[in-house]
Amino acid sequence: MEGMALPKCYMAVILGKHPSSVYCELRRNSTGGVYSGQEAHEASEQRRVDTKPYPKLDHPVLTGEIMRLFPQDLSPEQISGRLGVLYPEKKKKQASPSTIYTVLYRETV
Length: 109
Fold this sequence. Notes:
By secondary structure, the chain is mainly α. The chain is 61% helix and 4% strand. It has a two-stranded antiparallel sheet with strand order 1-2. A hairpin with a 2-residue loop joins strand 1 (30-31) and strand 2.
Protein backbone atom coordinates (compact mmCIF):
# COMPACT_ATOMS: atom_id res chain seq x y z
CA MET A 1 0.00 0.00 0.00
CA GLU A 2 3.03 2.26 -0.14
CA GLY A 3 2.24 5.40 -2.08
CA MET A 4 -1.51 5.05 -1.50
CA ALA A 5 -3.14 7.43 0.91
CA LEU A 6 -5.96 6.08 3.04
CA PRO A 7 -8.73 8.51 3.89
CA LYS A 8 -8.15 9.91 7.36
CA CYS A 9 -11.46 8.58 8.66
CA TYR A 10 -10.37 5.03 7.69
CA MET A 11 -7.05 5.57 9.44
CA ALA A 12 -8.93 6.57 12.57
CA VAL A 13 -11.08 3.41 12.47
CA ILE A 14 -8.03 1.18 11.91
CA LEU A 15 -6.11 2.86 14.75
CA GLY A 16 -9.13 2.97 17.06
CA LYS A 17 -8.80 6.74 17.43
CA HIS A 18 -11.11 9.67 16.91
CA PRO A 19 -10.72 11.20 13.44
CA SER A 20 -9.76 14.57 14.92
CA SER A 21 -6.71 13.04 16.61
CA VAL A 22 -5.57 11.61 13.26
CA TYR A 23 -6.01 15.01 11.59
CA CYS A 24 -4.05 16.72 14.38
CA GLU A 25 -1.22 14.17 14.25
CA LEU A 26 -0.87 14.46 10.48
CA ARG A 27 -1.04 18.24 10.52
CA ARG A 28 1.52 18.54 13.30
CA ASN A 29 4.01 15.95 12.09
CA SER A 30 3.84 15.86 8.30
CA THR A 31 6.65 17.37 6.27
CA GLY A 32 5.87 18.34 2.72
CA GLY A 33 2.64 16.34 2.84
CA VAL A 34 4.48 13.16 3.87
CA TYR A 35 4.13 11.54 7.30
CA SER A 36 6.92 9.48 8.81
CA GLY A 37 6.33 7.77 12.13
CA GLN A 38 10.06 7.86 12.93
CA GLU A 39 10.30 11.58 12.19
CA ALA A 40 7.13 12.25 14.19
CA HIS A 41 8.61 10.40 17.16
CA GLU A 42 11.89 12.33 16.89
CA ALA A 43 10.00 15.63 16.68
CA SER A 44 7.98 14.65 19.75
CA GLU A 45 11.15 13.86 21.69
CA GLN A 46 12.67 17.20 20.64
CA ARG A 47 9.55 19.10 21.75
CA ARG A 48 9.87 17.39 25.12
CA VAL A 49 13.51 18.51 25.43
CA ASP A 50 12.64 22.05 24.35
CA THR A 51 9.78 22.36 26.84
CA LYS A 52 10.36 25.04 29.42
CA PRO A 53 10.92 23.61 32.90
CA TYR A 54 8.63 24.59 35.76
CA PRO A 55 11.03 25.89 38.41
CA LYS A 56 8.19 27.06 40.64
CA LEU A 57 7.25 23.44 41.28
CA ASP A 58 10.65 22.89 42.89
CA HIS A 59 10.84 26.18 44.79
CA PRO A 60 10.77 25.26 48.52
CA VAL A 61 9.87 28.75 49.75
CA LEU A 62 6.89 29.00 47.40
CA THR A 63 5.80 25.46 48.24
CA GLY A 64 6.00 26.36 51.94
CA GLU A 65 3.83 29.44 51.42
CA ILE A 66 1.24 27.44 49.51
CA MET A 67 1.16 24.73 52.17
CA ARG A 68 0.90 27.41 54.89
CA LEU A 69 -2.12 29.02 53.21
CA PHE A 70 -3.89 25.82 52.17
CA PRO A 71 -5.08 24.74 55.66
CA GLN A 72 -6.83 28.11 55.99
CA ASP A 73 -9.57 26.71 53.72
CA LEU A 74 -8.46 28.84 50.79
CA SER A 75 -8.99 27.57 47.25
CA PRO A 76 -6.02 27.54 44.85
CA GLU A 77 -7.55 30.60 43.18
CA GLN A 78 -7.69 32.40 46.54
CA ILE A 79 -4.14 31.30 47.41
CA SER A 80 -2.93 32.68 44.06
CA GLY A 81 -4.61 36.01 44.78
CA ARG A 82 -3.27 36.10 48.35
CA LEU A 83 0.29 35.46 47.15
CA GLY A 84 -0.08 38.34 44.69
CA VAL A 85 -1.14 40.65 47.52
CA LEU A 86 1.54 39.43 49.96
CA TYR A 87 4.36 39.58 47.40
CA PRO A 88 3.42 42.10 44.70
CA GLU A 89 7.03 42.71 43.63
CA LYS A 90 8.29 39.11 43.95
CA LYS A 91 7.13 37.05 40.96
CA LYS A 92 9.01 34.01 42.29
CA LYS A 93 6.69 33.96 45.29
CA GLN A 94 3.54 34.07 43.16
CA ALA A 95 1.86 31.18 41.38
CA SER A 96 -1.11 30.54 39.13
CA PRO A 97 -3.99 28.43 40.39
CA SER A 98 -2.92 25.55 38.11
CA THR A 99 0.60 25.61 39.58
CA ILE A 100 -0.90 25.63 43.07
CA TYR A 101 -3.10 22.63 42.22
CA THR A 102 0.03 20.79 41.03
CA VAL A 103 1.96 21.68 44.19
CA LEU A 104 -0.93 20.56 46.41
CA TYR A 105 -1.22 17.30 44.52
CA ARG A 106 2.51 16.60 44.80
CA GLU A 107 2.60 17.46 48.49
CA THR A 108 -0.50 15.51 49.52
CA VAL A 109 -0.10 12.30 47.54
